[in-house]
């Protein structure tokens, strides 16, 4: 279904529904139908996606206790949130929270909830986003060691650095630094740290920005070969050059040419 057009995906899901209904509504058929709905939601417009999520809700209520069907419902809610504006996302995330609480301990469902929280931050104002990041922090602490949830927390922190003032950004980058040290080797989390550092250089004076760029240099050297991290280092150098006097800026730009 994932590779089909909307028309054929809808037809495939209709067949899965017919098999489920005609086969005595067996759990395995319900699960296949639920998976089909999740994939279909990605292709649907908002109103149609809402109808598909309603079918997923009914399935997870009917087969209460089946964690795979509950996970499909959670994934469907995440796909729906991707299509919504802030108000709709907030409602959807509360539904994700309910599923997470019902199946406490299921880390895949917990990740779906964390993903939804991350998507909500994309649309929020700073104060609301800070509160949502605290919820992500709580999820990270509860599921300590789950790198996918840690990444969602890192993403939320990085998003904050784009909106905060200098003082707030510095504090948030400190949290990102601790996180990337805790998950040393996870290059996606390290990348969020590097992005936070770049955001900080844009707000700092020359001397502070020079120090931050040195931190970026260290990250780049530690993860040499990672082109995304190299790009962030180059971006930090560019931000620094914009603040420097002509002579220093020219030297920084020459250095930049050798990095990326």
Can you walk me through this structure?
It is a single chain. The protein has 260 residues and is an all-alpha fold. The chain is 80% helix and 0% strand. The chain is built from 13 helices and no strands. The model has no long low-confidence stretch (mean pLDDT 93).
Index terms:
mainly alpha; 13 helices
Please render the helix and strand layout as text:
Elements: H1 6-22, H2 27-41, H3 46-62, H4 67-81, H5 86-102, H6 107-121, H7 126-142, H8 147-161, H9 166-182, H10 187-201, H11 206-222, H12 227-243, H13 246-259
Helix pairs in contact: 1-2, 2-3, 2-4, 3-4, 4-5, 4-6, 5-6, 6-7, 6-8, 7-8, 8-9, 8-10, 9-10, 10-11, 10-12, 11-12, 12-13
How many individual helices?
13
What do the pLDDT scores average to? 93
The helix fraction, in percent, is over 70%
> What kind of oligomer do you see?
single chain
Report the span from N to C terminus.
40 Å
Which outline best applies? elongated
Quick one: how many beta strands?
Answer: 0
Poorly predicted residue ranges:
none
Alpha carbon gyration radius: 22 Å
């Amino acid at each position: 279904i994932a590779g089909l057009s909307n028309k054929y995906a809808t037809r495939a899901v209709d067949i899965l529904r017919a098999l489920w209904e005609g086969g005595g509504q067996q759990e395995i058929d319900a699960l296949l139908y639920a998976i089909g709905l999740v994939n279909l939601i990605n292709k649907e417009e908002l109103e149609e996606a809402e109808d598909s999520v309603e079918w997923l809700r009914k399935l997870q209520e009917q087969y209460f206790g089946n964690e795979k069907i509950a996970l499909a419902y959670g994934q469907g809610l995440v796909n729906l949130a991707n299509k919504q504006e802030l108000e709709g996302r907030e409602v959807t995330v509360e539904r994700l929270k309910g599923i997470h609480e019902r199946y406490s301990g299921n880390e895949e469902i917990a990740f779906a909830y964390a993903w939804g929280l991350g998507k909500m931050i994309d649309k929020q104002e700073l104060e609301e986003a800070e509160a949502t990041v605290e919820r992500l922090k709580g999820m990270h602490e509860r599921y300590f060691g789950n790198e996918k949830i840690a990444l969602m927390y890192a993403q939320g922190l990085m998003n904050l650095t784009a909106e905060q003032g200098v003082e707030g950004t510095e504090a948030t980058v400190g949290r990102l630094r601790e996180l990337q040290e805790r998950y040393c080797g996870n290059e996606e989390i390290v990348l969020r740290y590097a992005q936070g550092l770049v955001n900080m250089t844009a707000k700092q004076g020359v001397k502070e920005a020079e120090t931050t760029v040195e931190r970026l240099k260290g990250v780049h050297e530690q993860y040499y070969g990672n082109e995304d991290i190299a790009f962030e280092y180059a971006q930090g150098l560019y931000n620094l050059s914009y603040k420097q006097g002509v002579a220093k800026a020219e030297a920084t730009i020459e250095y930049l040419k050798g990095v990326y």
